[in-house]
Amino acid sequence: MDVDAYLARIGADRGTGLRELHRLHQTAVPFENLSIHLGERISLDGDDLFDKVVRRGRGGFCYELNGLFALLLEELGYQVTRMAARVFGGERFGPPFDHLALLVGHDGDGPWLVDVGFGSHSTYPLRPGTQDDPSGTFTLTTAADGDIEVGKGGRPEYRAETRARDLADFVPTCWWQVTSPESHFTAKTVCSRIDGDGRVTISGRTLIKTNGLARTEEELATDEAMLAAYRDHFGIVLDRVPQR
To answer: Model's pTM, two decimal places?
Structure first.
């Protein structure tokens, strides 16, 4: 991996700490599922992830973003555990490997829950307990079976196993997320990143900007407006609009 190229992609350097790496990554690299709707192959190979995110200036979803970020952190000397997580769907937790999250330590500090691939999640890494973050109030508790349960605003977000996994373990579920009509990733396009103290998102054909309680929405009625919005807000230059 070209560590310096990756750091430059997110506006960081080798002296940047984990807290700022976490924020800068989510500011520069969008959470997006556009490849699915562009018919592009999705690979969890490290070289392919680096090419997509760093060389081509794209983003990705959890397996891609946390998968690549884990490689960067290891290159920088962090201890990283890749954890399989089950996302809370409103009534119950989903299946194992539904999400990839990271547990990170460094020189006896930590562990920190690190997640740059969950969309609107914490701006900074999380420690056990309750903590306020620019993105909301988060809680990390230990479930009865030893899993880490992550909550935001008083409701569950996901539950992560602490058993160490390899990125290759997530390939089958990644394939399901990319291909199944039951996957929410195949149902609708999304592209989102931190923007200052808020977020900028394109969901379907709607451009959404949030900052605290303020929220604006703009319908992108034409393909030209869509392509311009991807370019201007995310630096993603496409030759066609992603289609469901």
So the answer is: 0.95
Measured between alpha carbons, how far is 112 from 83 in angstroms, rounded to an integer?
12
Could you give the residue numbers annotated as active site? 62, 99, 115
Report the alpha-carbon distance of residue 242 to residue 128 in Å, rounded.
Answer: 39
Tokens of 145: 């079976």
CATH no. of 3-179 = 3.30.2140.20
Write out the two tokens for 132. Answer: 């306020």
Span 173-185, average pLDDT: 94
pLDDT (tens digit per residue) in 51-92 = 999 999 999 999 999 999 999 999 999 999 999 999 998 888
Residue identified by tokens 């998968």 is 67
| Strand 136-142 with 129-133, pairing | antiparallel
Domain boundaries, the chain: 3-179
Task: Kindly write down the DSSP assignment for every residue of 4-71, as one continuous string.
Answer: HHHHHHHT--TT--HHHHHHHHHHHS-EE-HHHHHT------HHHHHIIIIIS---B-HHHHHHHHHH
Distance (Å, whole) CA 215 – CA 230: 19
